[in-house]
């Protein structure tokens, strides 16, 4: 869970939501605990909460969570199956987003770590919710970053030290089951001495030991876990939780600024570090040359290519879009990231001169339609006077022509939405965010029906 949010109306709504969910689970007999960052709950909360439930109660916990959220005014708009089942909710009026991570196992790449049943059996009740035993919390907090990323998170170090100090023998026993007694003793000693660099140097050893011990001692359990994870990967690849958004509009509509603000507005659903922002097309071929190219200030300054050269360049662009979609877009969508594209290939039909192309004929139009379609396309539209007050790289008549061409293009795209960009930036981002959340909610409803 992230840093607590300020005491605003949205924060109070989240507190009420968390309290309602916990009360519903307790009333329905769901065994659960909050894995970390539970101080201040439910009065103070962040935008994501990590919870552990029993495997056989996962479906029930999810169903009750969705029901309690709906009663609290929050709508489910996205769901992803990672190691936890991740559920994203939003409040339609405030557009505030919150994330619940439901774990039913604690593992690393199909390899079990702590036993979920044991952790839940020894949980400490705090009234509305339960928390892990200090030793279990210490070991889990240690492994959360160490085994996955090779370091010990700074904020978790006091919790790890306190838990291991409380019962170093138990902590060593738990870690010895996973990594062997020799590595476990080194980990315990390094933690107690607060030699964190020494602890982090053992990351490779604990990975190797865990793999070897699980494969040799629990081959059947490993096979079942791997099979389950393969199914989860296949489902996520078939219906990725991420999303592709394209921003269109004539020069001066503010695409770049809106892209930055939109990424921030959706950060509680699509983490920025998992996303990808693309100008025009994915950079696959001649990446260094494109990076060194200066910003365009005179888009129509160079003469168009000949027809043969234009056709060759269109094929070249198509291939780069196709390869980029497979190698860059798909991984982002798979890990629940936002792919945000400024212009996309639609620009070829609206402003071929910008790309020194003679034409964008029917044949090439059909070719580009073979590319993956974005989930949503937003046309940032404003009167020509407003657009030209912001940018004047092309003549006034060209601005008017482009605007009408974009409007005609948007009318032909079922996934397109027109946004008035003459209004304040905050209002533009608000309108787009609302449209995105409504789309995600409708998509999630369709997926649940399937």
Would you kindly provide a written description of the structure presented here, covering whatever features stand out?
Helix 4 (134-149) packs parallel to helix 6. By secondary structure, the chain is an alpha/beta fold. The two termini are 31 Å apart. It folds into 2 domains: 9-236, no CATH class; 243-449, P-loop containing nucleotide triphosphate hydrolases (Rossmann fold). The chain has 18 helices and 14 strands. A 5-stranded mixed beta sheet has the order 1-2-5-4-3.
What are the SSEs and their pairings?
Layout: H1 9-27, E1 32-34, E2 48-53, H2 58-71, E3 75-81, E4 85-90, E5 97-103, E6 107-108, E7 111-112, H3 116-121, E8 124-125, E9 130-131, H4 134-149, H5 157-166, H6 168-179, H7 181-192, H8 196-200, H9 203-217, H10 219-238, E10 243-248, H11 255-265, E11 276-279, H12 287-292, H13 307-334, E12 338-342, H14 347-350, H15 362-368, E13 376-381, H16 384-390, H17 396-412, E14 416-420, H18 425-449
Parallel strand pairs: 2-5, 10-12, 10-13, 11-12, 13-14
Antiparallel strand pairs: 1-2, 3-4, 4-5, 6-7, 8-9
Helix pairs in contact: 1-2, 4-5, 4-6, 5-6, 6-7, 11-18
């Amino acid at each position: 869970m992230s840093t607590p949010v300020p005491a605003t109306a949205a924060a109070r709504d989240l507190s009420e939501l968390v309290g309602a969910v916990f009360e519903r689970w307790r009333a329905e007999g769901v065994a659960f605990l909050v894995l970390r960052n539970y101080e201040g709950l439910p009065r103070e909360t962040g935008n994501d909460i990590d919870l552990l439930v029993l495997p056989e109660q996962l479906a029930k916990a999810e169903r009750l969570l969705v029901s309690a959220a709906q009663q609290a005014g929050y709508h489910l708009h996205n769901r992803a199956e990672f190691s936890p089942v991740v559920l994203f909710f939003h409040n339609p009026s405030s557009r505030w987003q919150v994330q619940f991570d439901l774990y039913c196992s604690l593992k690393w790449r199909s390899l079990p770590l702590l036993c979920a049943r044991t952790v839940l059996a020894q949980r400490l009740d705090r009234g509305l919710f339960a928390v892990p035993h200090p030793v279990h919390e210490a070991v889990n907090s240690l492994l959360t970053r160490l085994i996955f990323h090779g370091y010990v998170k700074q904020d978790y170090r006091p919790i790890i030290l306190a838990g291991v100090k409380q019962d170093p023998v138990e902590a060593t026993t738990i870690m010895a089951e996973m990594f062997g007694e020799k590595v476990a003793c080194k980990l315990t000693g390094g933690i107690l001495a607060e030699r964190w660099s020494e602890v982090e140097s053992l990351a490779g050893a604990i990975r190797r030991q865990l793999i070897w011990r699980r494969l040799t001692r629990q081959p059947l359990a490993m096979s079942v876990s791997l099979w389950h994870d393969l199914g989860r990967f296949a489902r996520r690849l078939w219906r990725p939780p991420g999303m592709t958004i394209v921003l269109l509009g004539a020069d001066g509509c503010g695409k770049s600024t809106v892209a930055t603000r939109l990424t921030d507005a959706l950060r509680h659903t699509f983490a920025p570090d998992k996303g990808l922002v693309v100008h025009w097309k994915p950079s696959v071929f001649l990446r260094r040359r494109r990076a060194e190219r200066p910003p365009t200030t005179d888009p129509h300054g160079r003469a168009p290519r000949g027809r043969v050269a234009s056709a060759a360049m269109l094929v070249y662009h198509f291939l780069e879009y196709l390869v980029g979609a497979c190698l860059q877009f798909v991984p982002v969508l798979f890990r629940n990231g936002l792919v945000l594209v400024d212009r996309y290939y639609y620009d070829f039909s609206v402003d071929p001169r910008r790309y020194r192309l003679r034409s964008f004929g029917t044949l090439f139009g059909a070719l580009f339609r073979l590319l993956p379609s974005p989930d949503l396309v937003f046309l940032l539209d404003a009167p020509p006077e407003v657009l030209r007050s912001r940018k004047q790289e092309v003549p006034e008549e060209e601005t008017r022509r482009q605007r009408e061409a974009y409007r005609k293009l948007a009318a032909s795209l079922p996934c397109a939405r027109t946004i008035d960009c003459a209004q304040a930036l905050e209002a533009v981002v608000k309108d787009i965010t609302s449209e995105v959340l409504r789309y995600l909610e409708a998509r999630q409803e369709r997926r649940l029906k399937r």
